[in-house]
Amino acid sequence: MEILLGSPRGFCAGVVRAIDIVEIALRKYGAPVYVRHEIVHNQVVVEDLKKRGAIFVEELSEVPDSSLVIFSAHGVSPSVQKEADMRNLSVIDATCPLVTKVHSESKRFSEKGYTILLVGHKNHPEIVGTYGEAPEQTIVIENKKDAYDVQVPDPTKVVILTQTTLSVSDTQEIADILVKKFPSVLLRNDICYATSNRQETARELAQNCDIVLVIGAKNSSNCNRLKDVIESLGVPSQLLMDPKELDLSKINNFKKVGIISGASTPESLVSSVVEAIGYDRIITREIIQEDISFSLPRELRESKP
User: Tell me: the pLDDT tens digits for 254-287?
Assistant: First the structure.
């Protein structure tokens, strides 16, 4: 058996920054540190931070007054920020800078009177946060049917924003429908570099492998999109978090096995799956080099070792 290990894979710059923020906050301020929502969508990461003293909550009502709370990489709406201020909570914002950019675009276009067509998954925390910037002017588009059916007050003042973790090809199909429907629409390219790069790597693996395994969490949007990309090319795929989920009797029937991981997946999970499979040869297939990093919030910069 030959394993093709896709690269880039695993942690993106936004995830590295978010995890660093929680770890440094724990060192600097001590436990407990409250985190609203999973800091990133990976249970291994979350459980590790829990052991160090992080407490994960879904609502700010679960955080004691005047405590320290960290907002996850997915971002929050202005109403959540306002609630934190009213509760006298100390906030450290771990929102990915690329998500913050989408929030800024939403505010800017809403102030100019545009209708915002926000492409993404309605219940995903990133969409919930972005939608909250201008709820009265924002319409969430989840699929092609939504795109065909959507109506806006002024067809000449429409902008398309997107969730950063979507499938590039699926999003383009939706955008094409909206551009045809509203010829004056402004289209922003909000899918993040890490999502695009990992999807391109997944596509390359699918074209050269008999099966491609995606390592990551079931609730990770970018991991699920990797699986979609692979299967759209007619190649079988499995999304798994643990080697125990492997059906080795099935995997051993394939000569070439590709492996890719989502942007919130630690490399340790990839290594454990590779070891569980066993192989005759392993090759790293690097498609694109990544050298992007994001700075920490000002209050934590001096604390990083």
Answer: 999 999 999 999 999 999 999 999 888 999 999 9
The residues that are catalytic are 126
**For residue range 33-83, what is the model confidence (pLDDT) as tens digits?**
999 999 999 999 999 999 999 999 999 999 999 999 999 999 999 999 999
Q: Per CATH, is 2-11+193-286 categorized as 3.40.50.300?
A: no
What mean pLDDT value characterizes the chain? 96
CATH architecture assigned to 98-187: 3-Layer(aba) Sandwich (3.40)
Residue spans of the domains in the chain: they are 2-11+193-286, 13-96+295-303, 98-187
The average pLDDT across 227-247 equals 95
The model carries a pTM of 0.93
User: Tell me, what amino acid is at 96?
Assistant: C
Say yes or no: do domains 13-96+295-303 and 98-187 share a fold.
Answer: no
